[in-house]
């Protein structure tokens, strides 16, 4: 009997010890979880540096290229974490895609866009912000490019951390400007170009918001508020999908495939017109089939916009990968060419290994850190459904086409987020208009209290202020950071 009691106490002690070990293991696992993503990112950055050493070869400049490749990989990770949310956020917020599905689709199409249609020639000084002749020598130029790359990456990293979608293009522009001023003085900067970029801070979100609001008004008036919603959808949804197909065909011809085939603006519009008409005709029987048996209510309409929304998100990712990969690897490619040739050029070719760093870095950044900004854009600014998210995606493509026609530099980030704001503010205006109309019919209705009116706002003002502030200070913040990094590098080099 005593032996049984002793054994029972021994087992009880063992259970307690195992329980403590289990709790300790769970606590360690919980504490280590936030470090997994940064750890994987660090491994990718190290591998990018080692790959650069392997492909560049052993020269006097190998160490410089390795460090620059690490900076380029870091920038690519941040682009994936911040910029890609603009393409996938609306689809996820509208529940047309799960977070996992969005990340998989974006990773595939971002990588495909970068590798298939990515810029094989880019401006070494980012859209002519600073002239190469203003640099004293190749060494100064390399330091300036490294400072620009690191400063823009650090700024985008900070913006992602505080939950603000910012333009990575403007971050690079600010970085180049700051390094250019620090190395060659204020006169080295092309201020008229900087003026057009500053104008795009206002033009991009306004154009995106107005176009998205216009399409949402059309959908509400022609489909949602019709007595027979399904019949209205059968009439108008094929046309809307056709407009989307035409817009994206022209958008990809202008922005996504320009490095594969030289296409004029007029030709791109003709391609878009042809694609739009064909899609319109093809979608008429498809929408008729999809709408059979659907109830005459708004929830049924979401089914008809789901697939077009997913396709638009994928196409936006492809075009983004083709265009914005240069933000990560453009300065790196300039450093590689400058160290190889010993001279400066207005344009450089991007080696395949450099493009791979950019393409895979964007995908890794999206996978590891993207969900935070995807949730912000998709659901935390204003509530989206498939119709509203469709308007945001379509606005992004059309705004880029209009801006290209007008010759205006625009930011895809500002367009997409501006479109989300436009949809939200239009819904507020429309709700207020309907409330006034209802009061006019029933004048005895009690007025809504100010607190209740504030509660009914459909756009979160705190996010509007945070994002707008981040947009305004992106270029000066990246410029100041870049100048400080450049001066530090120059002082350390003696």
Alpha plus pi helix count: 16
Helix content: over 70%
SSE order, one letter for each helix or strand:
HHHHEHHHHHHEHHHHHH
Beta-strand portion reads under 5%
Distance between the termini: 83 Å
Average pLDDT, rounded to a whole number, is 81
Number of domains: 1
Low-confidence stretches: 24-32
Main location: membrane
Family: Belongs to the inorganic phosphate transporter (PiT) (TC 2.A.20) family.
Transmembrane segments: 35-56, 63-81, 140-160, 172-191, 197-219, 239-257, 263-282, 303-322, 350-369, 389-406, 412-429, 464-489
Membrane topology: Multi-pass membrane protein
Topology of helices and strands:
Layout: H1 2-56, H2 62-82, H3 85-93, H4 99-117, E1 121-123, H5 138-162, H6 168-184, H7 191-224, H8 229-256, H9 265-291, H10 298-341, E2 347-349, H11 352-369, H12 371-380, H13 386-406, H14 412-441, H15 450-455, H16 461-493
Antiparallel strand pairs: 1-2
Helix pairs in contact: 1-2, 1-11, 2-5, 2-10, 2-11, 3-4, 3-10, 3-12, 3-13, 4-10, 4-11, 5-6, 5-10, 5-16, 6-16, 7-8, 7-13, 7-14, 8-9, 8-10, 8-13, 10-11, 10-13, 13-14
Describe the 3D structure:
The chain is mainly α and 494 residues long. The chain has one domain (36-493). It has 16 helices and 2 strands. The protein has helices spanning 2-56, 62-82, 85-93, 99-117, 138-162, 168-184, 191-224, 229-256, 265-291, 298-341, 352-369, 371-380, 386-406, 412-441, 450-455, 461-493; strands at residues 121-123, 347-349. Strands 1-2 form a two-stranded antiparallel ribbon. The chain is globular, with a radius of gyration of 26 Å. The model is unreliable at 24-32 (pLDDT under 50). Belongs to the inorganic phosphate transporter (PiT) (TC 2.A.20) family. It is found in: Membrane. It is a multi-pass membrane protein.
């Amino acid at each position: 009997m005593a032996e049984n009691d002793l054994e029972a106490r021994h087992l009880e002690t063992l259970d307690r010890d195992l329980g403590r070990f289990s709790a300790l293991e769970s606590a360690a696992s919980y504490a280590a979880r936030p470090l997994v993503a940064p750890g994987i990112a660090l491994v990718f950055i190290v591998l990018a540096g080692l790959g650069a050493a392997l492909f560049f070869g052993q020269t006097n400049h190998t160490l410089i290229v390795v460090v620059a490749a690490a900076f380029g990989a870091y920038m690519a990770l941040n682009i994936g974490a911040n910029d890609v949310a603009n393409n996938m956020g609306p689809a996820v917020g509208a529940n047309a895609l799960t977070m996992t599905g969005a990340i998989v689709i974006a990773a595939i199409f971002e990588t495909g866009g970068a590798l298939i249609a990515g810029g094989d020639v880019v401006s070494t000084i980012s859209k002519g912000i600073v002239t190469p002749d203003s640099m004293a020598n190749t060494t100064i130029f390399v330091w300036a490019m490294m400072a620009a790359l690191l400063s823009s990456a650090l700024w985008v990293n900070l913006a992602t951390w505080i939950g603000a979608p910012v333009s990575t293009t403007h971050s690079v522009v600010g970085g180049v400007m700051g390094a250019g001023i620090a190395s060659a003085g204020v006169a080295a900067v092309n201020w008229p170009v900087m003026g057009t970029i500053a104008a795009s801070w206002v033009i991009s979100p306004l154009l995106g918001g107005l176009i998205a609001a216009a399409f949402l008004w059309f959908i509400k008036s022609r489909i949602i508020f019709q007595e027979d919603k399904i019949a209205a959808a059968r009439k108008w949804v094929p046309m809307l999908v056709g407009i989307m197909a035409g817009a994206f065909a022209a958008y990809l011809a202008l922005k996504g495939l320009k490095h594969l085939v030289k296409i004029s603006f007029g030709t791109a519009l003709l391609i878009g017109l042809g694609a739009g008409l064909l899609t319109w005709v093809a979608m008429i029987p498809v929408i008729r089939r999809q709408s059979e048996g659907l109830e005459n209510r708004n929830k049924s309409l979401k089914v008809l916009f789901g697939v077009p929304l997913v396709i638009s998100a994928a196409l936006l990712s492809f075009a983004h990968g083709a265009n914005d990969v240069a933000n990560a690897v453009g300065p790196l490619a300039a450093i590689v060419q400058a160290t190889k040739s010993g001279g400066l050029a207005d344009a450089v070719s991007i080696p395949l290994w450099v493009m791979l760093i950019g393409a895979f870095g964007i995908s890794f950044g999206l996978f590891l850190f993207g969900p935070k900004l995807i949730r912000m854009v998709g659901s935390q600014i204003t509530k989206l459904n498939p119709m509203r998210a469709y308007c945001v995606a379509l606005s992004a493509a059309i705004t880029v086409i209009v801006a290209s026609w007008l010759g205006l530099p625009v930011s895809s980030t500002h367009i997409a987020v501006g479109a989300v704001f436009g949809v939200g503010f239009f819904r507020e205006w429309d709700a207020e208009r309907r409330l006034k109309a209802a009061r006019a019919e029933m004048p005895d209705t009690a007025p809504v209290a100010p607190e209740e009116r504030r509660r009914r706002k459909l756009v979160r003002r705190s996010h509007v202020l945070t994002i707008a502030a981040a947009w305004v200070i992106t270029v000066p913040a990246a410029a100041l950071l870049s100048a400080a990094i450049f001066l530090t590098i120059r002082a350390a080099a003696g």
